[in-house]
Each structure stands twice: as structure tokens, then as C-alpha cells.
User: Fold these one by one.
Assistant:
Number 1:
Amino acid sequence: MTQDKKLLVSAIKNGTVIDHIEAGNALKIIRLLNLPAHKKIVTVGLNLPSRAMKHKDIIKVEGKEITEEEMNQIAILAPKASINIICDFEITKKFKAKLPKQIAHVLVCPNPNCITNQERMDSLFHVIQNGTIKLKCHYCEKIFSQEEIKNYNT
Amino acid sequence: MNFQGKSIISINDISKAEILHILKHAENLKKKQQPNLLKSHIMGSCFFEPSTRTRLSFETAMERLGGQVMGFSDGKVTSAKKGETIYDAMKIIGQYADVIAMRHPVEGAARRASEATNKPILNGGDGSNQHPTQTLLDLFTIKECQKKLAGLSIALVGDLKYGRTTHSLAQALAHFGAKIYFVAPDILQMPDHICKELKDKKIKYTKHKKIEDVINKVDILYMTRIQAERFSDPMDYERVKNAFILTEDMLEKVKPNMKVMHPLPRVNEIDTKVDKTKHAYYFEQAENGLYVRQALLGLVLGKLK
């Protein structure tokens, strides 16, 4: 069990490991996926050393399989994330989060005069992938870079 | 092409073929009115913020087609003041009216309204976002006075940063291969995202600081107002304001077919002496709003095909 000693976040028997999250985003993802509500064990590693990313976050969810659709909706926060589904300590499925064409609910439109910030309703963004990623609000039609989106509906 | 039941929210939702179809019907209505076309139809005229030309031309358009109008011209008289959402308000008005023309100060309000009702919404302006009927009447006017839309040289002058009219017009002109000149002080130049969109569509555009740099080359000089409030330092405004005022003497060497347009209201950016010249076309432009809105009402109510 020498490998276990190297693990900074303990291994899980059944569930999901979301790895290679950009450092600083794990807590937002936990809130967006509403993980505390499932009453399952969630372990989090923040700012772990990573060869590829220098620092990364990691989330391990015991007893819950996170679907590709769920992951895709939050892919904007974790574009490099790899998701491992664990069954009896073995990886049974592995996938990457893919940016969907539309992102509903998750993002808060930075335009204060957008209807989504004035009334109780879901936001909706169209993802424009043209070299860089841009997000166009379905309602106010303003286009934002990822960095301009500061708030998330958690 | 079927417009029945369709909302007109953003110029970006309308294809080139659809634009030309709307303009064709507007042209027909300008030639020959159809006073009974929309008999027994009711338009909800929902203006949550003040408007004169847009509201009155929508209402006149409906009435001259034989339809009726109900509504309000000030959001303060509605339940919006009590905190009612746009969604609820428009759902209810949609149960009374066959079509709704609306203006609202919040961006995206018209799109939201179109989700609340299955009756067509005609967006008469949502904050600084879209004003598609203005863009369509601008295109109609350009086509009318130049006899074509393709391959024209067009200067957009004034506040290009905040002006929704010039944004939508630039985007729509991209369908027709125009050469566009943006004439504005640096701080009010056309936003990068619109320029990038034009570039992607291989539309030629250049940026300028003075009307004189481009006026003799263009077929259309589209003027807009520069508001002093946009400048943080009033001195900056004083320095640039005269470069964006059109006077009669500037028209000496322009192309004979050149027309001056303006979405109105103007303040001082077009000297009144220009009104009498053969180049002034802004009053005709305002009149054309009537025919374009008539065409849209007829189309979305399924009475024009």
C-alpha cells in the first residue's frame, strides 16, 4: 500500500473522482453540483501539486456517479477536468468534461441591466468556441470572455 | 417563408432572405395600403418607457391596417411598479391581444416576454440591446434611396460604442457586402466584438475621426447623436463635438446619390440647413418606419405571406 501513502486525498470505494480542476474552482463546483445535499462523503483537495497544471484541485464523491451532462454544465469552471467513475476501488469509466453549446442556470450575467439580473429566472448562455471561448447571453445578447464572468448561481 | 406567430426580437435572428421578404412587403404597402388587412385584430402596445416615433408608428401601422390598439405608454401606470415580473405581465397581456409591440428599459426583456406568451412580440427596443424594427426601416430606406442594398459605401457617425442602432445596422449590413466607415471619437468607437464579427464575415471597414475624411466617398452618411454625458471630462466633449456635426457646406463635393440618414431625435448634429438639400433623407426614413411595422404586423399575424 505504498501508493496509498502518496495520496493526499483518500481513495474512495464507489463514486466519482473529479481530477485536474483548475486550482480555486473546486468549492464552486461542489456548490454547483449541489453535492452537500446528497449527504454523501465528499473529500476535497485544494492547491495540490500537479505536474501538468502546477496546482490543481480534486473532488472525490463517495457513492454518487456524476453524469456527463452534469459535468458538461460546469465544464466552463473545469475545462481540463478528468472524471473517473470508481467501482470497488477500480476505475470503470473515464471521461473529460465537454463544453456544451448552451449553459443554463450556472452563470450569472455580468450585465447588471440584463433581465436575468432583474427578475427571478434562469440565465442561459450560448458558448462560442472560435479559438477562444466566449459566452453570449441569450437575453441581453452581450458577449463575455470567461474571465469576465465573476459570479455563479450556487 | 412563414412568419405567422413569430416574434421579432433581434436582428440577429433574421436571415438575409427574411429581411428581403419583409422589405418587399413594406414596399408593397408603401405603394398600396391595405386598410382592412388586420380587421378584428388587437395589438397590445406595451411601452414601459417613453417613445414617440416607435410607439406612434406601431400604433398608426396597426390602425391603418384596420386593427385596434390597446396598451400603455408609461411603465409607471402598470403593475410593474408593484413588482410584477415581465413574464407575468406579458403572459396576461398575451391573453388579451393578438400581437404585442413593446419597449422596455431592461436588456433581454423582449426575449423574456416571448417566452411568456405564444402571441408574437415585436421588440421596439430593450435597453441598449436590440431595436430590430429600426434596423429594418434603415435597410428599407437605404434600399429605397439607393435602389439596392449590395455593395454600398456607408459611414456610421457619432456614438458607435453605446448606440444600439449602429450596432444592429452594421451587423445587418454584413449580409449585403457593404464597405463601412466608422466615424467616432476614440472613446466612442465601434466595440471590438462587432468589428470581429464583421471581420469574420469578410466585411471591409475602417475607423475615422472626422466626417470630412469619408463624406465624399460614401453613398449613405448615417448620423447619430453624441451625448455629452458619455465623456468623463466635459473638455473632451468640447474638443471633439464639432467634428461630428454635419453642416451644409460639407456637402459640396459629395456623391450626387449620397443621402443623410439619422434615427432621430437629432439635437444639433445635423444643421437644419441640411434639411433643404437633396441629400437629407431622415424624415423619409422616419416615415418608412410605418410601412416596415405594417409589414411585420401583417406577416406575424399570418395575413401577409
Number 2:
Amino acid sequence: MSEGTLQAVGRPGSPVPPLSVEHLAKAYRTGGRILPVVGDLTFALARGEIVAIVGPSGCGKTTLLNAVCGLTPTDSGRILWNGVPLDRRGRTPSGIGYMLQKDLLLPWRTALDNVKLGTELRGMPRGLADERARALLDQLGLHGFAGAYPATLSGGMRQRVALARTLINDPEVLLFDEPFAALDFQTKLLIEADTVRLVRDGGKSVLLITHDIEEAVSIADRVLVLSGRPTTVKAAYTIDLDCAPDDMIGARESAGFSDYVRQIWADLDIPRTTVGGAGRGISRAAARS
Amino acid sequence: MSDAATGPATVIGTSRDAPPAPPRDGARLRSGALVLLVQIALLAALLAAWEWQTRQSPQSSFLFGSPSAISRFLWQGLADGTLLRDAGVTALETGLGFLIGNIVGTLAGLSLWYSTFVSRVVQPFIVAIGSIPIIALAPIIIIWFGTGLASKVAMSTLSVVVVALVTSYKGALGVDPDQINLMRTLGARKPQIFAKLVVPSSLADIFAGLKLTVGFALIGAIVGEFMSSSVGLGHAIFQAGSLYAIPKVFAALVGTIALALILTFLVGRAERLLMPWRDRH
């Protein structure tokens, strides 16, 4: 690394993206055979940008996310965080927030203590952590639920607590692996809107992995479509919709929305031989008209 | 139950996203009372049948000991203090064995989580030790620890330790790998993952082990007393049995059951105290 790059680290609007992935490849060995999962993947996440990644089932999206965090070692290619290559020893870089479909709340902790988990691990003073956690819970509409155990909360509320936990260390980049997939449609739209608002206000970058094309188009600045195994970037779309960024209904109603969805749907090239597959396609088309 | 919808800027939650409703306490209480009533009736019927049968012939009352004779011995043992003394000694042996065995076993089991290599190395040894019937060790234990308290505590500890090790290790292995990944992305180091995730999430399995080992600890202590002792419930049972004093055997047995119930109750209380989140559903 040259000195110039190091100086650029962390400055808003700097040309060095917070995350860039270059020619990433990863294969798994199962029963003596080598199964290439990620073929040759290159993309970058700009500061303040929301990038959604969609792809067919089993295309290695989760592998990609874990590799980016340093949780899974890669075979070749580079992962750069603010221009600095990821630690080979598998240490996760600081300044990232990670959220999955499972809320992964600790059942023995109250909502507040679950949110504070990351601050405890980093040794933040208790008073400050408490203040921040309460503020986040309030922002996410969970005022009065700080002392509740996860088992007493609904799925949507639990996922909000998980979001607050992800945000409390004030991460620069958020990595989401289908965080809203298990929620019902209405809850999902509300929590998506809140997430986008918090993320945009905080100037954070987001990498969102999802199966839901409408979710990808309504939230993201850019959508990357992945191919099947071995995975590469098949197509990229810059989403430009005529509505407020946190308006999930507005996004679905705006002019270009259905064209993006249709194009991405075509790119994914889902086989329509089964009755279920055809039914899904038709119901989606009907929902848009 | 309404959802939170009072946030200043963001209105969150819908009726479809409401928290799960708590179970109705009244219904649970009523069915609980019914269960207790049936239990008492069953016990009374059993005792009545027993009493009636043993009154049919002197042989029968000699062989099976009538409930009335048992209660006389129980009363006498309580009055002259012998039963309480025996129960106290056995309780001490059992309690010490239970505590030492569970502390050592649980610490060992949990710490196996730290190293897959070590756990793989020691696994066959654990299986081998776990498969030894504890009674087979009794002669050696008495030679090593003498005929006093120490040998019974050792027997009790040995009956408990492997079970505690296996259940706690199973608990530690059962931690969701995604949960560990999450901790790592939040910046946790291995000791932090152990203390904040592995130990608390193993508690359910550890407590299952504790409940199981109450009985094992008691068996260890009683078997130890059978082999050689001058006091304790096991001693009382053994002595009364060899004198054909069947009601006295049963009286000591009632003391043993009471001890087991008290210990199980204490473990249950400790569980509720240490895992409060399990109750508040």
C-alpha cells in the first residue's frame, strides 16, 4: 500500500471504497470432490451505498458474506477493507455489522442487554452503552421493551432488537444476509423502511443479500445479479426510482420498478418447468399490474 | 396486547406483529390441583391395599412390612434421632459428591469446547471410564479412602462426574455456529465467546445433567455405605435387611426418597434462580 491510500482511509467521499472484492474464488471439498462455489467475483461497495446481491439458490451468497467478514477463508482473490487486505488469520475486521435471517438474540439477555452485547465485547463504558442502546431501541419503536426477554417479543420486534445490536458499535459497513426473509409482508416493509432511514442518516454502506427481488429493487442503489455455481456477477443494475429512499410502497408504485424486477427475474433464469415456479411468476406479474 | 406504536418519528408494529400471548395461569393452576389430587388418591389407595394385604396373614406382614409398622418405625426413628442422623450423614455424602462431581465434570466438559484436538484425544478415555459400573470400584475406593466419609463422597463423586462431563460438553457443542460467527463479527475473542455465549447457552443441558445426577450421587453414597459403614441410610437399610426387619428397611427407604426429593427440589429452585428467562413466557 502506498501512503496516499492510507491517508484516504476513512475520509468521507474518498475514492477508496470501504469494501472491495477482487477476483474472489472459493471451493469446498466434499467426499474427495472439489465443488467450486464462488468462481470469480469482483465488485466494490462505495461509501454510503446500498448494494443488493440476488442470485439463484445455492449460488454461494452466504459463503461470500462469510468470506468478506473473514469468517471463511478464501482460495484466491483479495478482500479489501478501506483499501487494506483482510487479515489472513481469519480475524474479522472492525467496523462491520452482521445480521442474518435468524435474529440470534441471546435468550438469557433482555432486549437492552442483547443490544449492548457488542459494546461489552469492545469495552465501552457501561453508562454510555446503556444510553446508546436505549436511544436505538427508542428509534426502532421498542420504547418500553428494554427489559423484555426475547421469548416474549414477536418476530418483527426481535429482528428490530437484532438491528439495534448490529448498529450499536456504529459500524461503517453493514452486511445483511436475508435479515427480513422470515417476516410477514407488512412487518417487513416497516422494518425495511426503518433500516433504510437509519442507514442513510448514518451514512453507512450496506451489502444486502436477498432472495427477494422486489426487496432488492426497493432498497438498493445497485443490484448485482449473480450466476449459478461457480458464481460470478452476471449483471448489475443501478436503481433509479422516483420516490423517497425509505418509501417502500412508493418504490413499488413508481414507474421503473416493475421493469427492474422483470429484467432481474429474466437474468436469474429460474426454470419454469414446475407448476410452483410458473405460479410464482404469474402471481408476481399480477401483483405489479 | 397492543404493540409499541408510540415512537416519535417512526410508527412501528402492527396487530399482525404482536408478541406471543402468555398462557392462562388460571387454567394451569386448576389442572395442577387436579393432578395433585389424583396423585394423593393413588398413594392412599396403594397404602390401603398394602395394609389390607399384610393383615391377611402374619407371614405376609413379616415379608412385606405393613404401612402402619413402617410409620411406627419412622416415628420412632425421628423421635430417638437415629433416622435423622442417618439421613444427615447420607445427605452430607450425597451433597458433597454431587457438588464435587458436578463442578469437576462440568468444568472439564465445558473446557473441552476450547480444543477440538484435546476433546478428540480424550473421548475414548471418557467412554471407557463412563462404562465402568461404579459398584465395581467400591473395594478399591475403600482401600484408598478408608471406611469413613471420604470413601462415600468418592463413590458419589465418581457416579456423577462422567455424566456431568458428557452433558455439559454436549451443551457446549450445541451452540449455534452462526451465533459464534455473530460474536466474532462483534469483535469477540475466544474467552469472551466462551464466557458470554458457550457457558450460558449450555446451562439448559447442565441443569438437565444436575437433575439426572441427584439420583446417581445418592446411589454412589448408598452403595458406599453398603460396602462398609457404621452410619447412614445405606447402613440402616443394610443392617435392617440382614435382620429381616422389613418395616425398618422401608422406613430408611422413605428417608432416602425424601432426601432425593429435597435435592431435586433444590436443583429446580437453583435452575429458576439462574435461568429466569425460561419462566417468563
